TrEMBL record:
<dbReference type="GO" id="GO:0042132">
    <property type="term" value="F:fructose 1,6-bisphosphate 1-phosphatase activity"/>
</dbReference>
<feature type="binding site">
    <location>
        <position position="89"/>
    </location>
    <ligand>
        <name>Mg(2+) 1</name>
    </ligand>
</feature>
<dbReference type="GO" id="GO:0030388">
    <property type="term" value="P:fructose 1,6-bisphosphate metabolic process"/>
</dbReference>
<keyword id="KW-0963">Cytoplasm</keyword>
<feature type="binding site">
    <location>
        <position position="108"/>
    </location>
    <ligand>
        <name>Mg(2+) 1</name>
    </ligand>
</feature>
<dbReference type="GO" id="GO:0006000">
    <property type="term" value="P:fructose metabolic process"/>
</dbReference>
<keyword id="KW-0479">Metal-binding</keyword>
<feature type="binding site">
    <location>
        <position position="108"/>
    </location>
    <ligand>
        <name>Mg(2+) 2</name>
    </ligand>
</feature>
<comment type="pathway">
    <text>Carbohydrate biosynthesis.</text>
</comment>
<dbReference type="GO" id="GO:0005986">
    <property type="term" value="P:sucrose biosynthetic process"/>
</dbReference>
<dbReference type="InterPro" id="IPR000146">
    <property type="entry name" value="FBPase_class-1"/>
</dbReference>
<dbReference type="Pfam" id="PF18913">
    <property type="entry name" value="FBPase_C"/>
</dbReference>
<feature type="binding site">
    <location>
        <position position="275"/>
    </location>
    <ligand>
        <name>Mg(2+) 2</name>
    </ligand>
</feature>
<keyword id="KW-0460">Magnesium</keyword>
<dbReference type="Pfam" id="PF00316">
    <property type="entry name" value="FBPase"/>
</dbReference>
<feature type="domain" description="Fructose-1-6-bisphosphatase class 1 C-terminal">
    <location>
        <begin position="193"/>
        <end position="326"/>
    </location>
</feature>
<dbReference type="GO" id="GO:0006002">
    <property type="term" value="P:fructose 6-phosphate metabolic process"/>
</dbReference>
Length: 345
């Protein structure tokens, strides 16, 4: 199969535009690190214990060997890119590369860490933003830019295939790594999320901790033909945001990681700057939507570099349905699964 390489795609997009060339070089550096991480992930236990705990990261979460290795690989590659600084889930503070450069990068180097030793898909998520003139790139403040200002975003998915999903603001495209040549080739020219779906993804073990709106929406899904939806639904949950997102890009669906009552989850679990924003840009550019429940993710003014946010994204009709639950909290009351039903505490 002959198709365009990532370099050829980025070259054609950037042309002679200096700003775009800088973005293209930065994406190239991320792809280079992604390829190296993909080879290591594929070695699994032959490469040692990739899931071994190394230390705790800034989130207070256990940092595993592969988390650290992925972060180091991306930093090494991005030191050669025209960026002012990078921020990472694994770093307390931004790492400055060249303060005079025009770009910032935010990274989740290894999303889905809990799946490392289970041979389930994991990934790297990235967001490329402008470095606003006058802002010190060493500060968290320089990164507090709403998601709609991202210049490019995407993820590398380390699964049975290594995929690079990318948007530079002109639709969402997909590349697949050819392991023989080490080249990413364009294999999805225009990713389009199905408008309608019956598939939803949520960690249902947290059900008793959810707010009423999420409980009524999921109750409606579970009620199937017996409830107001009048149709049966299906559930999938990988537990790696990148893998759950990828499934939705390919066959539609909706993903929910809402805020809940657990300590540390009252603002959600996922991070705005390097998880929610890049995924929201990829999803919107593929024709889907991404919200907190009440607001569009890409409109949120960040207040902290490592800020968490409730994240709901996917097929448009399902997002509209969820919005109705937030607008009219009783919309999802089904006889068995509404506030008076099985979902009551
Ligand atoms: P990390 O960024 O720490 O890897 O965590 C994110 C994540 O693994 C997502 O990929 C996934 O959607 C979510 O956490 C799963 O959370 P939970 O274990 O609470 O279901």
């Amino acid at each position: 199969m002959t198709t365009k390489s990532l370099d050829a795609y980025l070259g054609a997009w950037a042309g002679a535009d200096a700003g775009r060339i800088a973005v293209a070089r930065t994406i190239g550096a991320i792809a280079e690190a992604g390829r190296e991480i993909a080879y290591l992930v594929a070695e699994g236990p032959l490469a040692g214990d990739l899931a071994a705990a190394v230390t705790n990261n800034v989130q207070g979460e256990v940092q595993k060997h592969l988390d650290k290795h992925s972060n180091d690989s991306l930093m090494a590659a991005l030191k050669q890119a025209p960026i002012a600084a990078l921020a990472s889930e694994e770093l307390d503070h931004p790492y400055v590369v060249d303060p005079s450069a025009g770009l910032l990068v935010a990274l989740d180097p290894l999303d889905g860490s809990s799946n490392i030793d289970t041979n389930v898909s994991i990934g790297t998520i990235f967001s490329i933003m402008p470095h606003i003139t006058g802002k010190n790139p060493a500060t968290h403040d320089a990164f507090l830019i709403p998601g709609h200002r991202q210049l490019a975003a995407g993820y590398v998915l380390y699964g049975p295939q290594t995929s690079l999903i990318l948007t530079v603001g002109a639709g969402t495209v997909g590349f697949t790594l050819d392991r023989r040549s080490g080249t990413f080739f364009l294999t999805a020219k225009q990713v389009a999320i199905k408008e309608k779906t019956k598939e939803w993804a949520i960690n249902a073990s947290n059900q008793r901790q959810w707010d009423d709106e999420i409980r009524s929406y999921i109750g409606e899904c579970l009620a199937g033909t017996d409830g107001p939806r009048g149709e049966d639904t299906n559930m999938r949950w990988v537990g790696s945001l990148v893998a759950d997102c990828h499934r939705i890009l390919v066959r539609g669906g909706v993903f929910l990681y809402p805020a809940d009552k657990r300590k540390g989850y009252t603002e959600g679990r996922l991070r705005l700057m390097y998880e929610a924003n890049p995924i929201a840009m990829v999803v919107e550019q593929a024709g889907g939507r991404a919200i907190t429940g009440r607001e569009r993710i890409l409109d949120i003014q960040p207040t902290a570099l490592h800020q968490r946010i409730p994240l709901i994204f996917g097929s448009t009709t399902e997002i509209e349905r969820i919005e109705r639950h937030y607008a009219e909290p009783t919309a999802g009351e089904a006889p068995l699964f509404g506030k008076r039903g099985l979902f009551r505490e």
